[in-house]
């Protein structure tokens, strides 16, 4: 009986221990299931966060590409501004040369005008002397009047040449005004381009500041998520492929920009060649004008020679006059008889001389008016040249200010490059951090697979043990039933 009781107690204890083990195993399985669910939820959240991070990284890559394009455009604008400044310097040098040439031409014209005034005075004196001689020798007077008319024709020709020269000066002045207008327009465009560049640089700095703050927030979020995340691997190859694709696109765009810059440089070289050809044409025109001036000087020299010949003829006429005076004294008696006729002739000659004097005075007045007009035009040209010099000084000041602005823009560009490099380094650190996170997630997934396998193995073992325990319980129940039956049989 004691054995049976002990045996029953041991069976009960076995059943209790088996039940306790079953409950403990059930609790463990439930805990593992809860942990598995939590891990699944955490993995889903982490996958979503990683997707969001991938999208943000792609957006940042697009922003970086945009900033690189803006940098390239800013560099191209700076190169264009430098080329325009060089062209302005070349034009300024050509203007200075033109100013010097115009000043020399004006001095030459003034000298010619002075020489012509002296010639006119000498012609006036010779005319007065001829008036004195006209009373005695009418035929010689007529010859001298013809010579004077020829000289007047030559003076009119010179006047026409001066008019043509004045028209050329006016045309050059108009060209200078047009070039100055073009320069002012180009200066306005350069100022507008510099303003646009400053606005673009300010916008880029603001975008960089916002990108920096967003990246700082992302780093904080990554530090917070770093405590929960263990690993992620699936997006590594995709990110590397995207980076390689972006690199290839960047290389292609850089090559295209190089080709475009080379084409622009070729076009600028062609423009410079055209400018050189125009300068050569202008130099040829100036040489032609110098030849015309030399011909005018030769004509003036011939006129001076003619004036000297006139003076010689006047001296000869004086000598002849003296001889004629002697002859007049000898033939005074004869002249008294012909005095009436001579008086009539003298009255006619005086009328003709009065008419010629009035005509000469009218011509002289017109010449003085034209000379005054030419002097006024020359003074106006000198004033315009001074104004051009003042405008050139203003242009030089604007060029210095533009150089300062270019230096400032270069400093801003260098600052932007430094910020861009810093942002690139931060982006690289983020990518490295994401890579480490991916590696951790990969390790976590591997460990999770191992744990799942272990859990499934434990479940299988538990199932086998449950079956064994159930079989044991059945065997024990059978044994108990057999014992009971044996007892009942004994009692009977």
Structural topology:
Blueprint: H1 2-134, H2 138-226, H3 236-330, H4 332-337, H5 339-491
Biased composition (Low complexity): 321-334
Region (Disordered): 321-346
Describe this structure in words.
- With 492 residues, the chain is mainly alpha-helical.
- The protein has one domain (16-125, 142-318, 398-491).
- 97% of the residues lie in helices and 0% in strands.
- It is built from 5 helices and no strands.
- The chain has helices at residues 2-134, 138-226, 236-330, 332-337, 339-491.
- Helix 1 runs antiparallel to helix 2.
- It starts with a helix and ends with a helix.
Brief sketch in words of this structure:
By secondary structure, this protein is mainly alpha-helical. It has one domain (16-125, 142-318, 398-491).
**What is the straight-line distance between the termini?**
17 Å
Approximately how much helix is present in the residues? over 70%
Instruction: Provide the succession of SSEs.
Output: HHHHH
Average pLDDT works out at: 65
Q: Unreliable runs, pLDDT <50, ≥5 residues?
A: none
Number of helices: 5
Radius of gyration: 58 Å
Q: Could you say how many structural domains there are in total?
A: 1
Basic shape:
rod-shaped
What is the percentage of strand-forming residues?
A: under 5%
Please outline the major beta sheet: none
Secondary structure category: mainly alpha
Per DSSP E runs of 2 or more residues, the count of β-strands stands at 0
């Amino acid at each position: 009986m004691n054995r049976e009781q002990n045996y029953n107690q041991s069976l009960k204890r076995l059943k209790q221990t088996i039940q306790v083990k079953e409950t403990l195993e059930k609790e463990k399985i439930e805990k593992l299931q809860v942990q598995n669910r939590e891990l699944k939820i955490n993995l889903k959240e982490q996958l979503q966060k990683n997707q969001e991070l991938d999208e943000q990284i792609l957006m940042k890559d697009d922003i970086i590409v945009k900033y690189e394009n803006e940098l390239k455009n800013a560099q191209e604008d700076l190169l264009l501004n430098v080329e325009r400044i060089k062209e302005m310097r070349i034009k300024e040098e050509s203007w200075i040369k033109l100013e010097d040439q115009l000043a020399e031409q004006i001095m030459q014209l003034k000298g010619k005008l002075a020489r012509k005034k002296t010639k006119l005075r000498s012609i006036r004196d010779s005319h007065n002397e001829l008036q004195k001689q006209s009373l005695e020798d009418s035929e010689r007077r007529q010859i001298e009047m013809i010579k004077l008319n020829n000289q007047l024709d030559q003076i009119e020709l010179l006047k026409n040449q001066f008019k043509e020269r004045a028209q050329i000066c006016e045309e050059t002045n108009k060209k200078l005004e047009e070039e100055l207008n073009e320069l002012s327009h180009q200066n306005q465009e350069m100022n507008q381009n510099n303003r646009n560049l400053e606005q673009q640089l300010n916008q880029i700095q603001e975008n960089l500041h916002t990108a920096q703050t967003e990246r700082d927030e992302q780093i904080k979020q990554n530090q917070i998520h770093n405590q929960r995340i263990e690993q992620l691997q699936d997006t590594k190859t995709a990110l590397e492929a995207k980076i390689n694709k972006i690199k290839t696109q960047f290389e292609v765009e850089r090559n295209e920009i190089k080709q475009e810059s080379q084409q622009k440089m070729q076009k600028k070289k062609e423009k410079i060649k055209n400018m050189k050809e125009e300068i050569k044409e202008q130099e040829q025109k100036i040489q032609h004008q110098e030849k015309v001036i030399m011909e005018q000087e030769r004509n003036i020299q011939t006129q001076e020679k003619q004036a000297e010949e006139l003076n010689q003829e006047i001296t000869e006429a004086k000598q002849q006059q003296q001889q004629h005076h002697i002859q007049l004294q000898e033939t005074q008696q004869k002249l008294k008889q012909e005095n009436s006729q001579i008086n009539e002739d003298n009255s006619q000659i005086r009328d003709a001389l009065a008419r010629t004097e009035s005509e000469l005075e009218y011509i002289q007045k017109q010449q003085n008016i034209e000379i005054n007009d030419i002097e006024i035009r020359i003074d106006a040209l000198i004033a315009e040249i001074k104004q051009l010099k003042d405008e050139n000084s203003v242009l030089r000041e604007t060029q210095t200010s533009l150089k300062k602005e270019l230096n400032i823009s270069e400093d801003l560009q260098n600052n932007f490059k430094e910020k861009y490099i810093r942002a690139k380094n931060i982006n690289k650190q983020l990518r490295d951090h994401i890579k480490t996170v991916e590696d951790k997630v990969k390790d976590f997934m591997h460990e999770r697979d191992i744990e799942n396998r272990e859990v499934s193995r434990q479940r299988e073992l538990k199932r086998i043990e449950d079956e064994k325990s159930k079989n044991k319980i059945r065997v024990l129940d059978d044994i108990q039933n057999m014992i009971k039956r044996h007892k009942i049989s004994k009692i009977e």
